[in-house]
DNA sequence: GTTTGTTATTTTATCTACAATAGACAGTTT
DNA sequence: AAACTGTCTATTGTAGATAAAATAACAAAC
């Protein structure tokens, strides 16, 4: 089946929500940049819109005929790219299923399980290996190193190093740097969440990611920013499977973020470092608590 | 042509040098662990040794008939794995050839150029992308970010952070830790090289890598150790194409290493940090000097 | 009890093929 | 002439096939 047309399907769905608002459709080129796809794909989308009689399309006249309906959309499973599917399957396997460190990972078996070719699985594993959770034995299998206490400690050690440096860098940014405005916006978002924490605490994961990324961006060091991908993926899946006390934990974390933001605004190195350390310490505790002790 | 049999060829060559020393050959299993290959490959090697009438092989009697000759070996090109070939080609292209930052990288073109399938090139690029020199545009080409001054600065920033931490960790190792013995050995190697620097300065690159890796190992943090791969590859190719004043540079670096080693042995944090900073500063200078200024 | 012969099976590394997608160029419309 | 569209080509993403290499099993030989 060569390539899946998930780019088309996903863009088609996004196009439906887009045109629900407006009357007339823009040019093919413009639509392309709007949706982030090439003209080829735009034309495929227009063709389908016409086929479903949502628009009338003749050359440059594209008139709305009717509003899009739920049935017009492609289902969510169809729009996720193969890489996303593989990542989810893999993470479920190694985190949820009793995956022991040292376990062998088999490309063929994984591929069969997920229902894809081996090529995609292989490429995923290569990409994923930079997270330090798996390791390749050439001409042989991959080895799962496991989400162990050691992993968490090594990860947080680097995180703390990087974030202290980034935070110091942030505080030293010139006053007219756009990051300060982003920080203000971030503060508002945090206050909003704190005011409605009972209903909104589940959204913290995403806010957390955005906040730390903002801090790291100021370092303008690609290695620091790239490393944050590892943090993101670990915490993302970690939040999904460890929900114990999450309301309290997240409320506390939002407060720490606000203290951290206030510290950044003082621009005083010692204050910043203190707030940063404080928050990272509790983040580490949370992570460690969720990991089963290997031999306790 | 599916898989190249480079594992066999390379192991065969190593086997030839191995048996040149000894009279009798060990068991198949033992030979396998010695060469780091499976019994299947060992038997293929033995079969070829017999065919060339280098040994007489009948069951468990494996007697040497004659010493291996240069003609018996596979040529060097034949034994390098596809990944190595691709890496070399690629580095030559992007470092030697006038590769501008922002240039597009084309999988198909690269593959045709090197004479391999696209899969291998693709996998190489994915693996290589973690070095921060290239970036993928999904469904489209790769972009060369280039070996620029910014890259070098970002790289060395992390390097200095990591190495200072590793060096401090090294100095704090217990006195009976095997790393101290390794450090003694390392010191001897450095003194040897310094004594014959005029003839040996070209070997510094390898010694440099081994020394810093020894220091980093003490961190026992996989992210620090992995990051050193980037340093290694950058400096490896950097040494290859920038030979200006290399004798003086390397002589100076060996001396700095010796000071660094002496500092580690004092186990005094301030002394260690000072020597470490000193050496890293001149390493950075060397690297920066070799990079063309973007607009000077 | 270790080593080998034998044989079979499994898995990886690599190539090739093809649909999806991107992108280029020339022709058309306003 | 600027913006848009029709058409075509080139490249990527993915599946599937195949040789090399690993792994396994077990009886026979030493």
Description:
- The structure is a homodimer of 296-residue chains.
- The model of chain A has no long low-confidence stretch (mean pLDDT 93).
- Chain A has helices at residues 6-21, 28-35, 39-51, 76-79, 82-96, 107-114, 118-128, 149-171, 178-195, 197-200, 204-217, 222-241, 246-266, 269-289; strands at residues 55-58, 61-64, 104-105, 134-136, 142-144.
- Helices cover 66% and strands 5% of the residues of chain A.
- In chain A, the strands form two sheets. In chain A, strands 3-5-4 form a three-stranded antiparallel β-sheet.
- The longest helix of chain A is centred in the middle third of the chain and has 23 residues, at 149-171.
- Chain A has three domains: 6-77, Winged helix-like DNA-binding domain superfamily/Winged helix DNA-binding domain (Arc Repressor Mutant, subunit A, Orthogonal Bundle); 97-144, Winged helix-like DNA-binding domain superfamily/Winged helix DNA-binding domain (Arc Repressor Mutant, subunit A, Orthogonal Bundle); 149-289, Four Helix Bundle (Hemerythrin (Met), subunit A) (Up-down Bundle), CATH 1.20.120.
- The N and C termini of chain A lie far apart (50 Å).
- Chain A has 296 residues and is mostly helical.
- The A-B interface holds A 7, 119, 122-123, 126-127, 130, 132, 139, 151, 154-155, 157-158, 161, 165, 220-224, 226-227 and B 7, 119, 122-123, 126-127, 130, 132, 139, 151, 154-155, 157-158, 161, 165, 220-224, 226-227.
């Amino acid at each position: 089946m060569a390539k899946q047309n998930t780019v088309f399907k996903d863009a088609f769905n996004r196009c439906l929500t887009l045109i629900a608002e407006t009357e007339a459709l823009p040019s093919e080129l413009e639509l392309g940049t709007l949706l982030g796809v090439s003209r080829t794909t735009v034309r495929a989308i227009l063709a389908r819109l016409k086929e479903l009689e949502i628009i009338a399309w003749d050359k440059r006249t594209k008139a709305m005929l009717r509003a899009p309906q739920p049935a017009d959309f492609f289902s969510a499973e169809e729009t996720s790219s193969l890489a996303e599917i593989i990542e989810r399957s893999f993470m479920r396997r190694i985190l949820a299923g009793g995956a022991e460190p040292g376990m062998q990972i088999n490309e063929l078996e994984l591929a069969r399980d997920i229902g894809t070719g081996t090529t995609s699985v292989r490429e995923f594993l290569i990409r994923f290996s930079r997270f330090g959770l798996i390791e390749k034995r050439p001409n042989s299998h991959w080895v799962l190193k496991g989400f162990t206490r050691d992993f968490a400690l090594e990860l947080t050690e680097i995180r703390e190093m990087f974030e202290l440096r980034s935070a110091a860098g942030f505080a030293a940014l010139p006053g007219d740097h756009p990051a300060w405005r982003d920080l203000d916006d971030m503060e508002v978002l945090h206050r909003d969440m704190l005011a409605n924490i009972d209903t909104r605490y589940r959204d913290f994961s995403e806010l957390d990611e955005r906040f730390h990324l903002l801090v790291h961006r100021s370092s303008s060091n690609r290695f620091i920013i790239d490393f944050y991908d590892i943090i993101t993926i670990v915490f993302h899946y970690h939040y999904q499977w460890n929900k114990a006390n999450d309301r309290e934990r997240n409320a506390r974390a939002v407060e720490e973020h606000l203290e951290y933001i206030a510290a950044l605004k003082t621009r005083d190195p010692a204050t910043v470092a203190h707030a940063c350390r404080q928050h990272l310490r509790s983040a580490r505790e949370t992570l460690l608590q969720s990991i089963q002790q290997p031999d306790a």
